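Cross-check.
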Amino acid sequence: MKILFCGLGGIGQRHLRNLRQLLGDDLEVIAYRVRGQRIKLRDNLTIDEGADLEQDYRIKVHHDLSAALAEEPAAVFICNPNALHVPVALECVRAGVPVFMEKPLASDLEGIDELLAEVERRHLPFHVGYNFRFHPGLQRLKSLLESGFFGRLLSVRSEIGEYLPNWHRYEDYRQMYAARADQGGGVILSQIHEMDLIYWFFGLPNSIVTHGGQLSGLEIDVEDTASSLMRCGNEGHSFPILLHQDYLQRPPVRSFKIVGDGGYAEIDLLANRMKVYDAEGQLSEEDDFQGFVRNDMFLAQARHFLECVRGTATPAVSLHDGLQSLRLALAALRSLKEGREVQLSEVNIHG
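Predicted model, tokenized:
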């Protein structure tokens, strides 16, 4: 199977390693590359010294996207900076190529309506890379929500914090997409996974108010801290969701908590530990996901996308889904900039 890669940084190489594991010698790799860095990364994001990315994976490199698409790849993985996602995706979709796009969908809504129309018209598989939807603990929380275990929802708290210079030890953090406004960086967009989980679990919130900004001494031109309070639910019953994101915490933290009058659950996504309590406060379920490693999510996601390409599945995270989490992130950014509560209805592709 011939796969085109647009972007071969840390996440692009992870997808490449996983496809090689799944497809073996049946994988043929072509790439549209701009910077052309040839460092090869291991799973833990350390450099494989002396290795050559393009040689070791037998990558055929193109410096022109149309030339790469002329080779008629079976699918494309778009893993470049998010500010560049939509123009590349549009060209790939117009060439009839199924798309796997890394999160977030984009850094603004420009061109999204055109992309939606092209994908719908061509009926192409289009999957957005929210790998945490393939985490067994989060899938369990989703099933508990759908079963009504929590009863009347009362509150949700989510937190993610990780020191930005530790993300990619192989490069200067100041040059990373996450640190640069011109590449769609900032903690709100870069750590958008939690916003996708909120949308997946509860639907799109009605409103959001966000406080924070560039509060640390990091040499970046984007926000490094954001605390967002959302209102979710309907007029008959709404509940608050609190999300905190930062580029600063050492050691890192990543947790999700759901509180209802019928039960309570918390999951630590770094320690891979989940506890569920019933209405009486008794521990009813506990799991530390023995044998699970982080890359398992990415492998499951890659298998799923290959099934979509082969026509035996439909994308678990569609282009429409990716748009909803992007709308939530853009509403948070607008609230941060304007210092007010923003209604989600204010952020859409028509205005």
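Residues 75 and 98 are 5 Å apart (CA to CA). The first strand starts at residue 2 and ends at 6. Passed to J.P. for a second look.
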